[in-house]
Amino acid sequence: MTVQIHESWLKQLSEEFEQPYFQELVEFVKKEYAQHTCYPRKKDIFAAFDHSPFDKTKVVIIGQDPYHGPNQANGLCFSVKDGIPHPPSLRNIFKEIETDLGRPYPESGNLECWADQGVLLINATLTVRAHEAGSHQKKGWETFTDAVIKKLSDEKEDLVFLLWGGFAKKKAKLIDKSKHHILTTGHPSPLSANRGYWFGNKHFSQVNDILKSKGQQPIDW
User: pLDDT tens for residues 107-144?
Assistant: First the structure.
């Protein structure tokens, strides 16, 4: 089966696509999309990889599940399509950027502009059934995205991994801390943020400080 994904990733992950678990995952996803409304659109399932090619990726943000409401998910974690109201977690991300960097709160919640600068915005599970959070978990996506994280860790150097919340923090075991940078904090969801686990983390300025110290272009958040 040919996966429609950026060629730089196809080269890195070709062995993964041949694994039996991935073939089973493909069949599951095909059936789900045929029988139910699922998100994101089929053509956006691998959008995170298409916007941030393997060789250009320098920052990784790990989410859990795509948004499961109409017209929200666009294949990038925490991101929504232009013109869609910002979900609570995304609002809190933008509020932190406001205080951390003094940037005005943006009109659009579409984070493609981040991804195009080398920020891989990857959910652990890349698809979901409409209005059923977590409905495509434990079907193979986590095995695939864990392999993606490990491949990045093994093949690249000086990446900055942002692990927000308990779920993302568990991915630290896949990352070689001796050659990459890991920043952790609470999840930007209201539940976590209102308890004081999110605001004030200054991750966005920290990322740019790290990138600049390595002679790389900072991210225009």
Answer: 999 999 999 999 999 999 999 999 999 999 999 999 99
Q: Which of 55, 65, 82, 100 is catalytic?
A: 65
Give pTM, 2 decimals.
0.96
- 116 a catalytic residue: no
Burial readout 119-154 (b: 16 or more C-beta within 10 A, e: otherwise): bbbbbbbbbbbeeeeebbeebbbbebbebbbebbbe
